[in-house]
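Why run this: before we spend reagent on co-expression, it is cheaper to look at a predicted model of the complex and decide which construct boundaries make sense. The entries below are exactly what would go into the expression plan.
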Amino acid sequence: MNLFDKNMSENTIKFQRKLWENPWGYAESFFIGFGLMLTGFFLEVFAGSEHIVTVSYPYNIFILFGYILVLFVLYKKFADKQLIRWLTKVPASISSIVLITILVMFMGIIPQVPSTNNLINNLGLNRITTNWAFLLILFQFLTCLGLISIKRILQFKWSNFGFILNHVGLFLALTAGMLGTGDLQRLSINLYEEKPSWIATDAQNNQLELPFAFYLKDFVIEEYAPKLALIDNSTGSISQNKGNNLYLVEKDETYFFNNFEVTVEDYLPNAIRFGMRYEPVNEIGAPPAAFISVKNIENDSIQKGWISSGSFRYSYESLKINDAYSMVMTIPEAKKFSSDIDILTKEGERISTVLEVNKPFKFRGYKIYQLSYDDKMGKWSNLSVLELVKDPWLPLIYLGIFMMIAGAIYMFWMGNKITKNE
Amino acid sequence: MTWIDFPFYSSITGFLWVLGLIFLVVSYKKQTLIKIAHLLFLLGWAMLITFVVKLWIELDRPPMRTLGETRLWYATFLPLIGFITYIRWKYKWFLAYSILMAAMFLAINYLNPETYSKTLMPALQSPWFIPHVLVYLFSYAVLAASSIVAIKGWYDSYKGNFNIETLKLADNLVYIGFAFLTLGLLFGALWAKEAWGHYWTWDPKEVWAFLTWMGYLIYIHYRHFHNHKTKQALTILALAFVVLLVCWFGVNYLPVANTSVHTYTN
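The model came back. Tokens follow.
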């Protein structure tokens, strides 16, 4: 990329320009950007990220309005200043986008967990989202974005409509998302069947008393049928189809595995072994079992036997079909899990609802999610874990997101016609 | 088990579509044949929709719980986006592409009957799943096309007969593709909020999707203001596509992969 490149007008004749001469171009932009980044890394090494405090209500509101006001005043009163002119031009935007991209690329390559590498730890490359370098560049980016948005809003034209939707939408979504983290509350709570619970735990493992209680009436898991798999006796790993697309066990179905023809003669969703065979029972921890017959196509020999996926209570059972292979049954996967709950308020109200993955329930500013359960117990779990999320900034973030969606549709429809006509 | 009817319906649909594609190709020579191609596409599509409606009624739930069922939806909606794009932009190859992709999904289902019942984990059973994947599918296709145009641009300028119209075509494709990319990213965010409680968690796939988005953002801004710097623009476009490929295929091989919700290997 040619760094000593003039700014906007491409049609003008090239002229030599000194660094920091008016107006600033790419060289100055990247110079400033790298300066910010170095300052950030310097702060990381000598001050660390632990000092970064998240602001919460009402200070984040003040900051949001203060920031927008400052941007407005800067644009209105200081637009003739070198710095402000630079911030509203493309080189400043592109340099900040490029530098953010580089920093996020670190995040995309280096796992964001405590590292054994000192360089990564000291520079904070394993905590990019709270890294000073990232925050400083992001601040420059948002300032450019904010100033440009204000400029286009004040010079409103219908042809700028898509531009404003995209830029203001992104500005809102980003600033509200960042400032909102101080007010974001994510709690998890363990519910046990037929017991009331009101003590939740936050991300730092602090216990918190909720202003209402949950009563878990019933926790239900619907499961898919278990799957059949051919495993290698020596390694214990699945040896057909590279482990993909296993067959669901179904009575009277026949499946082919390499040289074996497997027929499911009987399938019992809940069964335990009595002597030579499995019998259906209605008992906690009774795993699925199937009676299969395996025919070796090469020599027509047939083997029959019971297999079972096992559970937390009973061990699994496989059928060895020759020295190399065995047939097993996988542990059934959850199809759907849901909690039938009552919410009890201090005022004596009782609200009944059913929570399910992808179907959260809104209650008093919280969104309540079905999070997980005791996966060792599987469908016999009487523990249901819920998550409560309070995100008062969400409407503003969604406003930004929906503006961007509208902007994207506008963009699809208009294409780059605007540039074409210029 | 109305999937039993699937081979019947899908083969009729497939037949009509292939016939339509042939007419579409011939219509480059003889303009009027395009109408016949449209008619065949629409008939095939109607057949497919009949099947989806029947399946939905018989299952008594939206068919969205298995891999086979999601493929069925891709095949149903791809022609729709293809037609909208065609009506707006008149790119015939794009219509052909969308029909071909849809037919491919039908063929995958036809050849792998066991995927009818391949299980889908609860978090994926969401109305956002289909639109999220579909718009990404489209976006990648259009952006890949823009890269092909860019390669042509490189080749032409190497030969010394570069035409600015080539870059303008690339621009338009990037605009369309970027619009879909934005939609995919945002649909993903809205879905994540419903399923996992937060709209953005810097999951590795999210990180690379964001990087892809930034790459094309750089291209768009650069092009908008430096209309005549064609070499640099083509370089940026090539780099952005490399990032896209990392996002699409490469993430699973990076050291960050095991923390991702987007890897579905057992």
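Chain B touches chain A through 65 residues (CB under 8 Å). The helical segments of chain B are 6-26, 33-59, 67-89, 92-111, 129-159, 164-196, 204-225, 230-250. Bring this page to Monday's planning discussion.
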